Amino acid sequence: MDSRVTDLVESIYGSQPAELLSGLQRLLEEPQSTSEFADLWDETDVVLITYADQIRQHGRSPLQAQNKFLLDHSLDDLFSCVHLLPFCPYTSDDGFSVVDYLAVDQASGSWSDINNLGHSFDLMFDLVLNHASQQNSWFQSYLAGNPEYDNYFIEVDASADLSAVVRPRSLPLLTTFESAAGKKQIWTTFSADQVDLNYQNPRVMLRMIEILIEYARRGARIIRLDAIAFLWKEVGTSCLHLRETHAAVKLMRRVLDLVVPGTIILTETNVPHEENISYFGDGSDEAHMVYQFSLPPLLMDAVHSNDTSVLKSWLRDLSPPSQKTTFLNFTASHDGIGVRPLEGIVSAERLSHLLKIVESKGGKVNTRQTTEGTQKPYELNLTYMSAVSGDESEGAVRLARRFLATQALMLSMQGVPAVYFHSLVGSPNDYKGMQDSGQYRRINRHKYDRDELDRALSDTQGVQSRVFEGYKRLLEVRRNQKAFHPNASQEILDLPTDGLIGIKRVASNGSTLVSLINLSDQTKNISSSLIGSGMFFDELAEQRIYGGQSIEMLPYQTRWLTEE
User: Fold this and answer.
1) Which of 375-410 are b and which e, b meaning 16 or more Cβ less than 10 Å from the residue's Cβ?
2) H, E, C per residue of 109-140
3) pLDDT the model gives residue 48
4) Backbone dihedral angles phi then psi of residue 490, each to the nearest 5 degrees
5) Nearest to residue 214, comparing CAs of 255, 158, 178?
6) pLDDT value of residue 36
7) In the chain, what's the furthest Cα-to-Cα distance?
8) Which positions are annotated as active-site residues?
9) Cβ(252)–Cβ(215) under 8 Å?
10) Beta bridge partners of 220
């Protein structure tokens, strides 16, 4: 047995549970699966975030239909990896209430369909490890009194003091269930249909690590640990980021490194920035990647205020702890735009302004209950296209340029970029989906019929077509620039903060690229002395910029300048 594994197990449980250690030993004795990747990542890595049933087409499963769409548009030349959001059978929350962790929802397709997608793309899977569906066989067996499932879930005395528990949603923390032994109060952090697993039971830890390894062996290059911050529960504490939770991530990382080396662990922790990056550990022992959760709301703030000072200040402080760690940069996902990551970064007045913008765009604001019992904004629900749009008079050309400027900044940053499907195709708010479901998050989760999507993308005068073609152009240029390697250095230039952002990236081989972005609606001029002397080539405009010239930046323009 690996000594690091046993040390981590003991740090979690205060002992070395025999069943857990023997199970881990079996995993370690199985033939090792080796990743084909010599390096963890490079400048060609871009992740597409999408649902398994994102596209529907007659005669094909949704997974087949999506694969065909991606290949029809040669997106395998632009995206290295497809993040399939939970594709298992589920009962609620669009997949995040898992019934069977090792099955594919028949409404989306099959493991064969996923394998076929993996022929053209690397894959990223979600491990929904904090909770399972109340229809999951584990929970049903637990309610039936099957002793094998004793303590698989968390029973709590109704009189227990849970006032310190940090809540992600404004829903009851406990749910009453009828069992063979009578009524039980069960811990349900996210909803009554999402029953928290009890990791104080070593058998639960082993089952989930076995599933983690199985996902890696089934082709997942990256595995996202969903809602990991809430994993360990201890009455009388916040139950957030507990020491045991961090140790559990380290244990999963260590076992993966030994059994399927090269697999990347990504933690999902939609919390303030310093708490978020704590999951890097010491830079070699915990997550390889963390989400850049503060970026989406900060970028939204900058484009609406024409003030890039807060965004620039935050960017200057970013630095992953080692070459073995990096950020996953994104502006949108299946969830809304979290606002907890703004804590300690923006003022209450700026946050209030963002909430008013969301309301003006037809979006919604989800709240969470604080430990004091009050309601606070937690998440902004609208598509990112709608989030950064201007007034109603803004035409398709201007709207597409405005949106693509925000995406270009994300693509310029140190780390691996991730693009949500609805950002790629410029989706507007899905009001009908939200109203029909009664769920705010559905405003940003529209599922397309292939014919509907083809019509939107073939309208060359429309916003969606302009965004799609513009996005593809950014990705095409980006993948050929060594300076966009995730580990390339990053310097934030000292440009005026009236809408301008400048990022200088330098690769280990000396390749240099300066990204200049105008997030304002006014033409700006930048002295070339601020970026260096000599001659530059704008990779996007395919235009030379001579040293000493003033560099014109049109509203919402991006320039990617390489030295000649």
Assistant:
1) eebbbbbbbbbbbbbeeeeeebebbbbbbbbbbbbb
2) CCHHHHHHHCCCCEEEEEECCCEEECCCHHHH
3) 98
4) -135, 130
5) 255
6) 56
7) 81
8) 226
9) no
10) 123
Rounded CA gap, 220 and 124, in Å? Answer: 5
CATH class of 489-563: mainly beta
CB 532 within 8 A of CB 563: yes
What DSSP string runs through 229-248? Answer: GG----TTS--SS-HHHHHH
How many residues appear in the chain? 564
Domain range summary for the chain, segments of one domain joined by +: 489-563
Instruction: Spell out the long-range contacts of 356-364 with Cβ–Cβ below 8 A and sequence spacing 24 or more.
Output: 357/300, 357/304, 357/387, 358/382, 358/387, 361/386, 361/387, 361/389, 361/429, 362/386, 362/429, 362/431, 363/387, 363/429, 363/443, 364/434, 364/440, 364/443
Which residues face 400 on adjacent strands?
A: none
Closest CA to 382 of 333, 329, 450: 333
Chain-centre distance for alpha carbon 547: 39
Structure tokens at 278: 């704590």
Tokens 């094909």 label which residue?
A: 60
What value does the mean pLDDT of the chain take?
A: 95
Neighbours of 83 (CB within 10 A): 28
**In angstroms, rounded to a whole number, what is the distance separating the alpha carbons of residues 480 and 44?**
7
- Calpha distance 547→537 (Å, rounded): 11
Contact 129, 138 (CB under 8 A): no
Low-confidence ranges of the chain (pLDDT < 50): none
Phi and psi (nearest 5°) for 417?
A: -80, 150
In which residue are the tokens 């609406």 written?
A: 304
Tell me the three state secondary structure of residue 185. strand
Residue-wise pLDDT for 135-177, tens only, equals: 999 999 999 999 999 999 999 998 899 999 998 888 899 999 9
Q: What is the DSSP letter of 203?
A: H
pLDDT at position 531 is: 79
Rounded Cα distance, 364 and 388, in Å: 15
